[in-house]
Design brief:
5 strands; globular
C-alpha cells in the first residue's frame, strides 16, 4: 500500500460515508527518531475489511489495523503510541527505532 493523495483520501471517505458506511482514518500525528512514515501519513480502513494507504509497515501497520478494527466496533476514536525503540525493534526484526503517535479516527 502506498501513500494517499488528499483528493483521493477525501473522495473515498465521502463515498463510504455517503453510503452510510463507517470509515476509520489512521493518521500519523507525531514521530520521534527513525520511523517508516512521517507526520501526516494516512491509512483508511473500511467496514468490509478493505484498507488503503500506509502509516508504516509490518508490525506497526498490524497494530494499527487491530486498533482500527476495535474503533470500528466501538465507534470511539483514540490516540495510540507505538514504540519502535531499539529493544522492541530488534525483537521484531525492525530497523527503525523511533516512536509514533497515530490518531485512529472513526468517521460515520
Amino acid at each position: 500500500m502506498g501513500t494517499l493523495a488528499p483528493g483521493d483520501l477525501y473522495r473515498m471517505i465521502g463515498e463510504a460515508t455517503g453510503k452510510g458506511r463507517r470509515v476509520v482514518v489512521a493518521t500519523v500525528v507525531q514521530t520521534r527518531g527513525s520511523t517508516p512514515q512521517q507526520r501526516g501519513a494516512k491509512m483508511l480502513f473500511f467496514e468490509d475489511g478493505d484498507a488503503t494507504g500506509t502509516v508504516g509497515g509490518g508490525c506497526i501497520e498490524a497494530e494499527v489495523w487491530a486498533e482500527a478494527r476495535e474503533a470500528m466496533r466501538s465507534g470511539k476514536s483514540a490516540l495510540h503510541h507505538f514504540s519502535l525503540t531499539a529493544e522492541a525493534a530488534s525483537e521484531e526484526g525492525m530497523v527503525c527505532g523511533g516512536t509514533m503517535d497515530i490518531f485512529v479516527d472513526v468517521w460515520r
